[in-house]
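Example S7 (structure tokens).
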């Protein structure tokens, strides 16, 4: 339990830094590192995701990086998808879950490689719907508050619905897809995307956590040290996010996603 706690602490710190929520890293750690059944690992992960969002989300909201209006709007899609994914999960084979998990992360990492050199902001037209909903915002920088517009609201909403389904299936906050949707489709700065993702993942996980608990797939002896470790680590990662450059956050995001994806794909193929 101590080793699981320490591993979860690290996963929580890294997850909060890149907006993944830690759950996406805990599932590979529990299944590959400790040999725990993937469904029990998913049950522990989904509880830990709620803890991560509580720790990192509050810190990043106070630092002014979270776009609460964007999070509230997109949460409608992710919560609905999460419930649907949790209902579908028992009917999907463990091997398929591994391959799906790894494949999604690998595609996310490849798409992010193209944008390493910028922070996700740029010169583009604000989406009319974003203007009506007042989704555009500001973020702190060395030169004071910097304004940024929001575009691609409906494509982002669609990607969030998919992220919710994946979250319910795999017991993660689907932070990878959330960051990708906000960064690529909605063109939010990478730090804002990561912070808003951390704010959202807890609600997404909570939407499906009850279903996993009802099926008996949340084991307290696994979930407790994982949740405590990730909660502590997420606070550390959230504080570090403010200090790192946008390009550094993006590179860390790509490296973590790539390594995790390869491990999960190999596991799904039966290669130790």
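Recovered sequence:
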């Amino acid at each position: 339990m101590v080793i699981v706690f320490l591993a979860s602490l690290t996963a929580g710190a890294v997850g909060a830094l890149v907006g993944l929520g830690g759950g996406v890293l805990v599932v590979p750690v529990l299944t590959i590192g400790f040999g725990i059944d993937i469904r029990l690992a998913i049950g522990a992960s989904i509880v830990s995701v709620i803890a991560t969002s509580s720790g990192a989300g509050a810190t990043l909201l106070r630092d002014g990086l979270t776009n609460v209006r964007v999070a509230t709007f997109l949460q409608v899609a992710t919560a609905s998808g999460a419930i649907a994914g949790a209902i579908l999960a028992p009917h999907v084979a463990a091997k398929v879950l591994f391959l799906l998990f790894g494949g999604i992360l690998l595609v996310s990492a490849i798409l992010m490689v193209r944008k390493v050199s910028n922070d996700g902001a740029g010169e583009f037209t604000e989406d009319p719907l974003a203007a009506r909903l007042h989704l555009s915002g500001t973020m702190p920088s060395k030169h004071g508050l910097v304004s940024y517009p929001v575009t691609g609201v409906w494509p982002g909403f669609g990607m969030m619905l998919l992220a919710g389904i994946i979250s319910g299936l795999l017991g993660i906050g689907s932070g990878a897809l959330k960051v990708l949707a906000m960064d690529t489709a909605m063109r939010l700065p990478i730090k804002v995307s990561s912070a808003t993702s951390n704010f959202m993942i807890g609600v997404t996980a909570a939407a499906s956590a009850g279903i996993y608990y009802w099926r008996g797939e949340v084991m307290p002896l696994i979930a407790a040290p994982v949740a405590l470790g990730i909660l502590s680590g997420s606070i550390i990662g959230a504080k570090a996010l403010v200090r790192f450059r946008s390009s550094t956050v993006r590179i860390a995001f790509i490296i973590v996603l790539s390594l995790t994806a390869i491990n999960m794909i190999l596991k799904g193929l039966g290669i130790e």
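Notes on this example. DSSP finds eleven helices and two strands in the chain.
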